[in-house]
């Protein structure tokens, strides 16, 4: 049984980036994904270069901040910001999503880093409109793509695009606890040796920048504390789970 523990939102704020790196250095996090439209991308790249064993992919953004592309009117509000996750697909046109997500991948490549995989902020690539676009971009760049869900038909749609066998997203919000994570780890330990799982997480430190633009704040620090605890690290060892990142998929 092989496990990827991916921390979303690398580069969102400086404190978030520091928290993710610490959760990698001192916890069970093995992978992260960068928000390439963030003003803090240079800081994230600097820390990524200092930690080459941390897998870093692209966190495709459609619902936070502003786009990298110029003419993508269907995904931006009158102020030029992305629509919120609650209304984005009431407006979005496929060509604008593809243009912007391609620009984000190209921005990542321009840093000199080699991306391990693709996923998306707020898991928007699960949406019926966005999933074919994400699959197409992953195929174009030869990158694995996070499983949008665990439905068999989704795996078939991925075709030759690499993916994990399962995706676990319960370690979030009110469900963030030792018991939730330990339950996920037990489920991982019961799989076959050739099966792979991603556990999604959002560890972080907190700064005023995060407070100003996210509704998910204090729980990120709780996630960090659990993911770096001796209790969880020892449990992973006891279960014989092999930690990996998407580069090893």
UniProtKB/TrEMBL annotation:
CDD domains noted in UniProt: YdjC_EF3048_like (cd10803)
UniProt-listed InterPro entries: COD_ChbG_bac (IPR022948), Glyco_hydro/deAcase_b/a-brl (IPR011330), YdjC-like (IPR006879)
Cofactor(s) recorded in Swiss-Prot or TrEMBL: Mg(2+)
Keyword Magnesium found: yes
Keywords associated with the record: Carbohydrate metabolism, Hydrolase, Magnesium, Metal-binding
Family statement: Belongs to the YdjC deacetylase family.
Assembly and interaction partners: Homodimer.
Role summary: Probably catalyzes the deacetylation of acetylated carbohydrates an important step in the degradation of oligosaccharides.
Name of protein: Carbohydrate deacetylase
Annotated organism of origin: Ornithinibacillus xuwenensis
Gene that produces this protein: chbG
């Amino acid at each position: 049984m092989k496990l990827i523990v991916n921390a979303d939102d690398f580069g969102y704020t400086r404190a978030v980036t520091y928290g993710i790196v610490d959760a990698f250095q001192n916890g069970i996090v093995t992978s992260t994904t960068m928000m390439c439209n963030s003003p803090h991308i240079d800081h994230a790249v600097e820390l990524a270069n200092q930690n080459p064993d941390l897998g870093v992919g692209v966190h495709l953004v459609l619902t936070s901040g502003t786009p990298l592309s110029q003419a993508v009117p269907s995904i931006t509000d009158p102020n030029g910001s992305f629509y919120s996750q609650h209304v984005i697909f009431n407006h979005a046109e496929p060509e604008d999503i593809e243009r912007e997500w391609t620009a984000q991948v190209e921005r990542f490549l321009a840093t000199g880093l080699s991306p391990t995989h693709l996923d998306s902020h707020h898991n928007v690539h699960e949406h019926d409109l966005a999933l074919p676009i994400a699959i197409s971009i992953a195929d174009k760049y030869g990158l694995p793509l996070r499983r949008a869900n665990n439905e068999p038909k989704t795996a078939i749609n991925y075709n030759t695009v690499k993916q994990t066998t399962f995706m676990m997203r319960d370690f979030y919000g009110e469900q963030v606890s030792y018991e939730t994570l330990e339950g996920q780890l037990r489920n991982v330990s019961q799989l076959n040796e050739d099966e792979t799982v991603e556990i999604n997480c959002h560890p972080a430190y907190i700064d005023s920048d995060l407070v100003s633009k996210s509704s998910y704040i204090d729980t990120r620090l709780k996630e960090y504390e659990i993911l770096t605890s001796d209790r969880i690290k020892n449990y992973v060892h006891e279960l014989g789970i092999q930690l990996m990142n998407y580069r090893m998929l």
